[in-house]
Amino acid sequence: MAPHQNRVSIRPASRSQTRATAALLVAGAGLVAISLLLPHPSGGDETALILTALAMAVAGGIVWALGDKLPGWGVHAILAGVSAVTSLLIYESGIAVGQYGTIFVWSTLVASIYFPRRVAAIHLGWLLVAYGAVLLLVESTAGYSPLTRWLFTLISLTVVMLLITSIVARRARADERARHFFDLSRDMLCTANMDGYFVELNDAWTHHLGYGLEELRSIPFVERVHPDDRERTEAETAGLFEGAETLSFENRYQAKDGSWHWLRWSSQISPDESLIYARATDVTEIKRIEAEREELLGQVQDMARHDSLTGLPNRRVLEEQLPQAMARARRSLLPLSVAILDIDHFKNYNDTHGHLAGDEVLRACAREWDSALRGEDTIVRYGGEEFLVMLPDTEPEQAAEIVERLRRATPMEQTCSAGVALWDHGESLDDLLQRADEALYLAKASGRDQLAQAQLTS
Q1: Does some domain include residue 300?
Q2: Boundaries of domain holding 207
């Protein structure tokens, strides 16, 4: 067996145990002092009583100052000492009366509340032994026989012990069940105080974020919130104190490995406004899936609006943007021209070189023509080997210059024909496109590799 397994571990007492014990000592000292001021049996040594009261008060102050640093056996020793000192007080006073019985009751209460029933029974046994010895030695038992007074004390304190330990045991079982459900929750459950520190947390916090529970309690929780979310988080927390309830607030919280986790919070303040009760759900994975879904949706929408071969906008974009351009031109009384470009003899090229080579010609033309346009112009794949260019705020002469620049940029030793039409601010979209198409047909009928201007309708 390893050496450390033979050692006896002495756990420190809880803060509530030490403070209750300290309060017991100070209150006992106060009761002794009051008994000296009130009429009391003669024959006792008042100096001894005063010194005993001072000793109890000093001991109570020391215990309070030690707090939870006091070992568990120290609390037991102090409680046993209280019973012994009280018994000594009775002996010194020379008469056994109920005047000091409050200390006995209080000592039994403390032992019953903070320790298991077996331990409380040991404290009660020691108290009864010490008191029984005093009853045999004291000069007077105030009208009762020593046995009768001892039996009264035995019965009353035993009832107190059994009643309190039963209540405490039931409460402990209920707390244990609540804690069990608390820890079983996959959500991160917690309470926080008014200073912004976590008070209680379940194990889900460690599972999701990697911190130990004491690490989480060590600093205000807002300090691990993402800097971009901190102001919103503080505002949300402030709203709790004004009666608001958090239902679905989201922020980013830093895990121990440095990563950021999205948490979705629901919280409310306790009725006495001393604690915040909160539940946090780690939605990092949900956020990631949502982001991927949005990205895929964007890609699908982008694919639906762009030609898969050339990457240019398709006819759907034309059907959206050309009416908008026509509406702007009508409002501003500005010119709007459209041009349709067609690669010459493209079918013959496809038949001779194959569709893969033809596809490369389409991609090259799309790339060169798009880069040769102005920033405000838009080129779309109109269909097959045809491309349509929208030229806002462009008169026919300027439109012809732009289209000629495109024709000169036609790559891979190809040529193209083009038809240009100026919108008359009154005709429909279909009529405008028809005139541009007719101009293109005229250019092709005239020998191709040239531009033709559509005439305005009368």
Answers
A1: no
A2: 188-286
- How far apart (Å, rounded) are the C-alpha atoms in residues 405 and 386? 17
Spatial CB neighbours of 201, under 8 Å, sequence gap ≥ 6: 188, 189, 190, 213, 216, 217
In a domain, 391, yes or no: yes
Gyration radius of the chain over CA positions? 46
Q: Of these residues, 214, 292, 319, 385, which one is catalytic?
A: 385
Q: Assess whether 215 and 341 both reside in one domain.
A: no
Can you give the CATH number for the domain in which 203 is found? 3.30.450.20
Return the closest-CA partner of residue 329 out of 395, 387, 382, 388: 395
In this structure, the strands spanning 416-422 and 336-343 are: antiparallel
The last residue of one of the domains, among 258, 286, 314, is 286
Q: Are residues 117 and 176 in the same domain?
A: yes
- Each residue's pLDDT tens digit, 10-53: 445 566 667 777 777 787 777 767 766 766 555 445 666 677 67
Mean pLDDT of the chain: 83
Residue 101: its pLDDT value, please? 63
Q: Are 33 and 133 in contact (CB under 8 A)?
A: no
**pTM for this prediction:** 0.47
Q: What is the CATH number of the domain that holds 407?
A: 3.30.70.270
pLDDT digits (tens, 9 = 90+) for 184-218: 677 888 888 888 899 888 888 988 999 998 999 99
Judge whether 385 counts as a catalytic residue.
yes
Q: Tell me the C-alpha to C-alpha distance, in Å, between residue 323 and each of 336, 376, 431, 437.
A: 11, 15, 13, 18
* Residues 332 and 273 occupy one common structural domain: no
Give the strand pairing for 188-193 and 198-201: antiparallel
